Amino acid sequence: MSVQLPVVPTASLPALLLRPWQVADADALVSAHRDPALRRWLTSVISDEVDARRWIDSRRRGWAAGTRFSFAVLNDGAEGLGAAVGHVTVKVTDEGSAEVGYWTAAEVRGQGLASRALEAVVLWAFGKDSPVPAVRLDLLHAVGNHASCRVAERCDFGLEAVLPAQPPAFPTEGHLHVRHRPPQP
Fold first, then answer.
1. What is the dihedral sign for C-alpha 58, 64, 67, 68?
2. Per-residue pLDDT tens for 128-176?
3. Would residue 120 count as lying in a domain?
4. Do you find a cis peptide bond into 168, omega within 30 degrees of 0?
């Protein structure tokens, strides 16, 4: 499936393009995962090109199976597309529900990229032609990840619950934010 989601520029931010991850993104993926601030919140780490290719292959399999839809986020500036600087994913979890996740590379963090990219993917996931069979999207993050909480709030995900820690994968409490599919006209 070849889905591309354009995000229009704002007065102060460039346009974005979201598309499925490609092998050519491996270097950008490894580079982003070198950031200790990013690694702090991830459950898996990509250390080298072999890890990156394995991760990208698993995302391709997710698209093919219709179970995980992962997008690379690229700045789409005057010079053309830049390297991948972010990630947004939708993982189908059960009937009527899916989970979203995202991250941004250090060099673009704090610029609104995560909110803009997440909103584009939410609109796509809830669109009438979407392969995502969800009426509800869940967004989970560690309680201490305040930036992720702000992204959830900006994208109209309501805080539904504080979840208990589940070590070793989730060593701290988490927030569960939820956004429901709007009624169809």
1. positive
2. 899 999 999 999 999 999 999 999 999 999 999 999 999 888 889 999 9
3. yes
4. yes
The residue range of the domain holding 51 is: 5-133
Asked if residue 32 is part of any domain, the answer here is yes
Whichever domain contains 59, its CATH number is: 3.40.630.30
- Tell whether 144 is covered by a domain: no
Residue type, 166: Q
Residue 44 pLDDT: 85
β-pairing, 80-94 with 96-104?
A: antiparallel
Domain total of the chain? 1
146-154 helix and 113-125 helix, angle to the nearest 10 degrees = 50
Does residue 152 form part of some domain?
no
CA–CA distance, 77 with 80 (Å, rounded to integer)? 5
For 80-101, give one letter per residue: b (16+ CB within 10 A) or e.
eebbbbbbbbbbbeeeeebbbb
pTM reported for the whole predicted model? 0.95
| pLDDT for the residue numbered 169 | 81
State in Å, rounded, how far the first CA of the chain is from the last one: 27
Beta-carbon contacts of 101 under 8 Å, excluding residues fewer than 6 positions away, are 87, 88, 89, 91, 139, 140
Q: Going by DSSP bridges, is the β-strand pair 134-142/96-104 parallel, antiparallel, or unpaired?
A: parallel
